[in-house]
Specification:
The protein has 417 residues and is of the alpha/beta class. It has three domains: 148 residues, 3-Layer(aba) Sandwich (Adenylosuccinate Synthetase, Chain A, domain 1), CATH 3.40.440; 94 residues, Adenylosuccinate Synthetase, subunit A, domain 2, CATH 1.10.300.10; 158 residues, Adenylosuccinate Synthetase, subunit A, domain 3 (Adenylosuccinate Synthetase, Chain A, domain 3, Alpha-Beta Complex). The protein is 31% helix and 19% strand. The protein is built from twelve helices and 18 strands. A hairpin with a 2-residue loop joins strand 3 and strand 4. Helix 3 packs across helix 4. The relative contact order is 0.15.
């Protein structure tokens, strides 16, 4: 059965590790949305792999495919590809010819877009050009990978793009688009990666009866249409975008991943956020620093209200909990089970002002006693009783089984039930 690994929070749930763990049983690992604003850190036998675009299945030597829903920064991709080639012999990576490219002017526009917002409205973008690249895709101004076969095709598109964007760039004292330099850079990039570029139909035919694992980027609560808008990413992160972003119309089971607590990078609502020493402790113990942004992540208790919402919109069939070991030595652990004493048991992002004004009290939390150090990673039955109680409570609330328990960054620190 094909599977999709989807983050259920605001990203950084540990998808990269779990994709690496699961990919042993799959023939192809597919990334279907996002750009190099995603970050996966995977540790195997004390070797650390940091990936932004390439699916972490590459670490096991699996064939990996970046679908048409991805936006690709040529410079970043080639740098990442070269870095992985130093650690993995002959990595098998394919690029959909229909991928839209991120170019230098997209990064300039990203910075401009953020600069004109007041402090309360700033998104906290990575300024990597992701949003403007998706805007161009919708606005039918994208330069696609398939365009790189023709100097004329690139030049023709760039002349129109230059007319559209140069006045904006100039008004913000940014350099205007250099058509000749952009063309030369793109043609050079094409020469380096043309053997990796494939048509979607070839992937469909080759993997028609093979096992496919889909890797999500960012988290469900950052989805452009279903997340905490406008504090979201620029693509659809939920599972229903898989068919569109990968061009592979296959059945799959959704595996939802969440941390034993909640984190968020950038601005936006965060009902269970901690503004005290406990939040600082979780950030330090969990090494909650953004792989891409290098910013400290905001930390809080596990939010079951938003988690339930994510499970529903992603049609999650089974769950994976990560980083429970980060909470080992806290005296007590809390879980947010409602907002404003059950006034809000369902999340409503269409009224984000409600989320911003929530004032949670003791009645909104379930309290669990510490489970201490975890010494046995053999099976679920050998875990501390308090941790098993914690996991069982979450399962009962969500009515979905937790099948995978990750208790550390290494591949082997994982329990399958």
């Amino acid at each position: 059965m094909n599977k999709a690994v989807i983050g259920l929070q605001w990203g950084d749930e540990g998808k990269g590790k779990i994709v690496d763990f699961l990919s042993e049983d799959f023939d192809l690992v597919v990334r279907y949305q996002g750009g190099n604003n995603a970050g996966h850190t995977v540790i195997v036998n004390n070797n650390t792999y940091k990936l932004n675009l390439i699916p972490s299945g590459v670490i096991r030597g699996k064939k990996c495919f970046l679908g048409q829903g991805v936006v690709l920064d040529p410079n970043h991709f080639y740098t990442e590809y070269n870095q992985i080639r130093k650690k993995i012999d002959n990595p098998k990576v394919y690029l959909s010819s229909n991928i839209s490219l991120i170019l230098n002017y997209h990064k300039q526009l990203d910075i401009i877009n953020e600069s004109i917002l007041n402090s309360e409205k700033k998104i906290g973008t990575t300024s990597k050009g992701i949003g403007p690249a998706y805007q161009d895709k919708v606005g039918r101004k994208s330069i696609k990978l398939y365009d790189l076969k023709s100097r004329y095709a690139i030049e023709e598109k760039l002349h129109s793009i230059k007319k559209f964007y140069d006045p904006i760039l100039e008004s913000f004292n940014e350099s205007k688009i250099n058509i000749e330099q952009t063309i030369e850079d793109l043609l050079s990039f094409y020469d380096l990666v043309k053997e990796l570029i494939v048509d979607n139909s070839l992937i469909k035919k080759e993997y028609k009866n093979k096992k496919i694992l889909f890797e999500g980027a960012q988290g469900a609560l950052l989805d452009l249409d279903h997340g905490s808008y406008p504090f979201v990413t620029s693509s659809n992160t939920i599972s229903s975008n898989i068919d569109i972003g990968s061009a592979l119309q296959v059945d799959y089971k959704t595996v939802g991943i969440f941390k034993a607590y909640t984190t968020r990078v950038g601005n936006g609502p965060f009902p269970s956020e901690l503004f005290n020493d406990i939040g600082d402790y979780i950030a330090e113990k969990g090494v909650e620093i953004g792989t891409v942004t290098k910013r400290k992540r905001r930390c809080g208790w596990l939010d079951l209200v938003s988690l339930k919402y994510s499970c529903e919109i992603n049609r999650v069939k089974e769950l994976c909990i990560t980083k429970a070991d980060v909470l080992n030595n806290l005296e007590e652990i809390k879980v947010c089970k409602s907002y404003n004493s059950k006034k809000y048991e369902d999340i409503n992002f269409s009224e984000s002002n409600i989320l911003n004004s929530l004032s949670l009290d003791d009645g909104d939390f379930e309290v669990f006693q510490s489970w201490g150090e975890i010494n046995d990673l053999d099976k679920f039955e050998t875990l501390p009783n308090n941790l098993k109680n914690y996991i069982t409570y979450i399962e009962d609330y969500l009515k979905i089984p937790i099948k995978i328990i990750s208790l550390g960054p290494e591949r082997n620190q994982t329990i399958i039930r």
